[in-house]
Amino acid sequence: MTALPIIDSPSPQANTASGRRAAMPPRHLADLDPAGRRAAVAELGEREFRAGQLSAHYFGRLVRDPAAMTDLPASSRDRLAAAMLPPLLTPVRELACDDGATRKALWRLHDGSLVESVLMGYPDRVTVCISSQAGCGMACPFCATGQAGLTRNLSTAEIVDQVVSLAAVAASGAIPGSPPRLSHVVFMGMGEPLANYPRVISAVRRLTDPAPDGLGLSQRHITVSTVGLVPAIRRLTAEELSVTLALSLHAPDDELRDELVPVNQRWKVAEVLDAAWAYAEQTGRRVSIEYAMIRDVNDQPWRADLLGELLSGRLAHVNLIPLNPTPGSRWDASPKPVEREFVRRLRAAGVPTTVRDTRGREIDGACGQLAASQVAE
């Protein structure tokens, strides 16, 4: 059985693949709640209301350059910014496709780790897909990130800073045909979000806290994905948040899911779905069932029928994902006729089903591909 990372480590540090402890980044304003920010500013010998001014610049104006913070005393701008807004993400590469509507960013963290984020513009919204870990410990064989292994958890601020950075790109008007304000966030980038539970939940609260304490996004516009860490799903249910839960199922039967999603060896399909239905009942939010369509692996008609039986009458929606194959992988996307038949059978069972809009194939769109290509250079 594949070893899995601890769901909630008492330390903000995570074990690296080599067994060494990974040093986390310097403290950042986004790591702290409003009271913590005021205390941190007071420790610097500044008046506490400066914390609110810094928050307004970072979350409200999407600014981190101290020269632009003209409401702060010139004598303390640089010191406050250095202590409360240290650089966390260094841009390494940015690729664009879909006439500029899709942009993938590769970031280097303070310890050299690489993570990815994707900004996607639509006529009615702008969405960012963000990473919660450097690498991933779930070992799903068809996923580039899963094959790279886990380096470490990201801090709350490293997660939030991806969103703030790309929100600034959207606000600049760089996404053609889309609103200038980022409105949706999906935790579907590198990593298993619920394996970095405390920092992901803190990040959700920073993203949804009203300005100037946070970015002011709607909880209903936040999606948190998981491969099925049952204790963490039950813990999320008790948070009384209204985020969307996305369950990466990928197979309706335990025999295949044991192979595709190794965590299934610990929590079987029935137990994972029970936890998901409890979340749906508590929140009134339908669960998004993520299902990567893999040629001749999980796309058989009988599996569509079995999935339909499991989901029929439940507060759920199936999001079929045409697999974005990684270089050298034996896994490939299902043919379109097979995909259409899978959709037909699910809908015939009364299960709402859509096929995910394919974005970013030209720019190493699958999670982990861009980071892997950078390391290989």
UniProtKB/TrEMBL annotation:
<dbReference type="InterPro" id="IPR040072">
    <property type="entry name" value="Methyltransferase_A"/>
</dbReference>
<dbReference type="InterPro" id="IPR048641">
    <property type="entry name" value="RlmN_N"/>
</dbReference>
<dbReference type="GO" id="GO:0019843">
    <property type="term" value="F:rRNA binding"/>
</dbReference>
<dbReference type="InterPro" id="IPR007197">
    <property type="entry name" value="rSAM"/>
</dbReference>
<keyword id="KW-1015">Disulfide bond</keyword>
<dbReference type="GO" id="GO:0030488">
    <property type="term" value="P:tRNA methylation"/>
</dbReference>
<keyword id="KW-0479">Metal-binding</keyword>
<feature type="active site" description="S-methylcysteine intermediate">
    <location>
        <position position="367"/>
    </location>
</feature>
<feature type="active site" description="Proton acceptor">
    <location>
        <position position="116"/>
    </location>
</feature>
<feature type="binding site">
    <location>
        <position position="136"/>
    </location>
    <ligand>
        <name>[4Fe-4S] cluster</name>
    </ligand>
</feature>
<keyword id="KW-0004">4Fe-4S</keyword>
<dbReference type="GO" id="GO:0002935">
    <property type="term" value="F:tRNA (adenine(37)-C2)-methyltransferase activity"/>
</dbReference>
<comment type="function">
    <text>Specifically methylates position 2 of adenine 2503 in 23S rRNA and position 2 of adenine 37 in tRNAs.</text>
</comment>
<keyword id="KW-0963">Cytoplasm</keyword>
<dbReference type="GO" id="GO:0000049">
    <property type="term" value="F:tRNA binding"/>
</dbReference>
<feature type="binding site">
    <location>
        <position position="143"/>
    </location>
    <ligand>
        <name>[4Fe-4S] cluster</name>
    </ligand>
</feature>
<dbReference type="GO" id="GO:0005737">
    <property type="term" value="C:cytoplasm"/>
</dbReference>
<keyword id="KW-0949">S-adenosyl-L-methionine</keyword>
<feature type="binding site">
    <location>
        <position position="140"/>
    </location>
    <ligand>
        <name>[4Fe-4S] cluster</name>
    </ligand>
</feature>
<keyword id="KW-0698">rRNA processing</keyword>
<dbReference type="InterPro" id="IPR058240">
    <property type="entry name" value="rSAM_sf"/>
</dbReference>
<keyword id="KW-0808">Transferase</keyword>
<dbReference type="GO" id="GO:0046872">
    <property type="term" value="F:metal ion binding"/>
</dbReference>
<feature type="binding site">
    <location>
        <position position="324"/>
    </location>
    <ligand>
        <name>S-adenosyl-L-methionine</name>
    </ligand>
</feature>
<comment type="similarity">
    <text>Belongs to the radical SAM superfamily. RlmN family.</text>
</comment>
<feature type="region of interest" description="Disordered">
    <location>
        <begin position="1"/>
        <end position="31"/>
    </location>
</feature>
<dbReference type="GO" id="GO:0070040">
    <property type="term" value="F:rRNA (adenine(2503)-C2-)-methyltransferase activity"/>
</dbReference>
<feature type="domain" description="Radical SAM core">
    <location>
        <begin position="122"/>
        <end position="361"/>
    </location>
</feature>
<dbReference type="GO" id="GO:0051539">
    <property type="term" value="F:4 iron, 4 sulfur cluster binding"/>
</dbReference>
<dbReference type="InterPro" id="IPR027492">
    <property type="entry name" value="RNA_MTrfase_RlmN"/>
</dbReference>
<keyword id="KW-0819">tRNA processing</keyword>
<protein>
    <recommendedName>
        <fullName>Probable dual-specificity RNA methyltransferase RlmN</fullName>
        <ecNumber>2.1.1.192</ecNumber>
    </recommendedName>
</protein>
<keyword id="KW-0411">Iron-sulfur</keyword>
<dbReference type="InterPro" id="IPR013785">
    <property type="entry name" value="Aldolase_TIM"/>
</dbReference>
<feature type="binding site">
    <location>
        <begin position="191"/>
        <end position="192"/>
    </location>
    <ligand>
        <name>S-adenosyl-L-methionine</name>
    </ligand>
</feature>
<dbReference type="InterPro" id="IPR004383">
    <property type="entry name" value="rRNA_lsu_MTrfase_RlmN/Cfr"/>
</dbReference>
<dbReference type="GO" id="GO:0070475">
    <property type="term" value="P:rRNA base methylation"/>
</dbReference>
<keyword id="KW-0408">Iron</keyword>
<dbReference type="Pfam" id="PF21016">
    <property type="entry name" value="RlmN_N"/>
</dbReference>
<feature type="binding site">
    <location>
        <begin position="248"/>
        <end position="250"/>
    </location>
    <ligand>
        <name>S-adenosyl-L-methionine</name>
    </ligand>
</feature>
<feature type="binding site">
    <location>
        <position position="225"/>
    </location>
    <ligand>
        <name>S-adenosyl-L-methionine</name>
    </ligand>
</feature>
<keyword id="KW-0489">Methyltransferase</keyword>
